[in-house]
Amino acid sequence: MTARKLLLDCDPGLDDALAILLAHGDPGLELVAVTAVGGNVSLETTTRNALDLREYLGFPQVPVAAGAAGPLVREARNAAEVHGIGGLGDVVLPRASLPLDPRGAVELIVETIAASPGQVHLLATGPLTNIALALRAEPRIAQWAASFTIMGGSFTRGNTTPAAEFNIYADPEAAAEVFAAGWQVTMVGLDLTLQALVDDRIKERMLALGSLGRNFVVPLSTFWNDPQDPDWGGQAVHDVCAVAFLSRPDLFRSVPAQVEVETEGKFTAGMTVTDFRSSAPNALVPVKLDVRAFWDYVLGIYGSVSDAQN
Ligand code: BDR
Ligand code: CA
């Protein structure tokens, strides 16, 4: 089986870092480029983290490029209260020595997809600013991308406001353009990702992964704890779910839907209004996760990376 080529646009970020680890370790995926966007923390910090992760995890041949510092039209907002001011919680990685790609993220996205039409799977785990700008620069990437998947949105609830999930809320205008680009958007949203919680049993399995588990996977998976959530069951590994979908769609039950992004609502800006009854779907929405098989898969890949390091 040939590996699926994956271009990951992200804002590392606790769960973005865990998603990068999965993308790097899964032999069914070939990480071909990483692009950073401002989101969870500033662009400077997400870019620095992407560079540091590349060297720490060991994929020096993969280009890393920086993209948009803030949303298309709104003020930038971040989620440093969740991810820590450095974006990776308490994890401090050695500073990278390899440079950024001289191209910006938009150029790298367009060139990578245009060079191999039908072969590069595009996946976004941050605000959709870079993707919207890439579509403006070259609308045909919507036809040339082998698939397009996001972690973002939801069909029942938000996490940044009652209605909106962070990645969409951070740049609703970009998200609206991206959902309207004529491709199918696989929307791995909160309803799905909140099924992938790091509870005590999963944490024990992560700790058994050796130094990678103790020093990287567990700290990134347990840094955030929501004291206001009465049903707190552990941190969700949102972005990991999106990478998992690309490699193992069989772990998900997915339903077509029409998704529109609210950009104007007084209370609902950033909401992904999802119509499962539409006859003109623009999205595929994973709704149910095989949780046990998901963790077997993810922890199996993390274990293989850990073994290769030792
Ligand atoms: C999403 O927002 C970010 O804080 C996470 O990295 C994830 O991509 C979850 O709402
Ligand atoms: Ca993210």
Architecture blueprint of SSEs:
Blueprint: E1 4-10, H1 14-25, E2 29-36, H2 43-57, E3 64-66, H3 80-83, H4 105-115, E4 120-124, H5 129-137, H6 141-144, E5 147-151, H7 166-170, H8 172-179, E6 185-188, H9 190-193, E7 197-198, H10 200-207, H11 211-222, E8 235-236, H12 238-247, E9 252-261, E10 272-275, E11 283-289, H13 291-309
Parallel strand pairs: 1-2, 1-4, 2-3, 4-5, 5-6, 6-11
Antiparallel strand pairs: 7-8, 9-10, 9-11
Helix pairs in contact: 1-2, 1-12, 4-5, 5-8, 11-13
Explained architecture:
The chain is α/β, with parallel strands linked by helices. The chain has one domain: Alpha-Beta Complex (Inosine-uridine Nucleoside N-ribohydrolase, Chain A), CATH 3.90.245. It is built from 13 helices and 11 strands. The strands form 2 sheets. It has a 9-stranded mixed sheet with strand order 3-2-1-4-5-6-11-9-10, with helices on both faces. It has a two-stranded antiparallel sheet with strand order 7-8. α1 packs parallel to α12 (238-247) and α4 (105-115) packs across α5 (129-137). The longest helix has 19 residues, at 291-309. The radius of gyration is 18 Å and the shape is globular. The mean pLDDT is 97. The structure holds beta-D-ribofuranose (BDR) and calcium ion. Residues 10-11, 13, 15-16, 40, 125-126, 239 line the site of calcium ion.
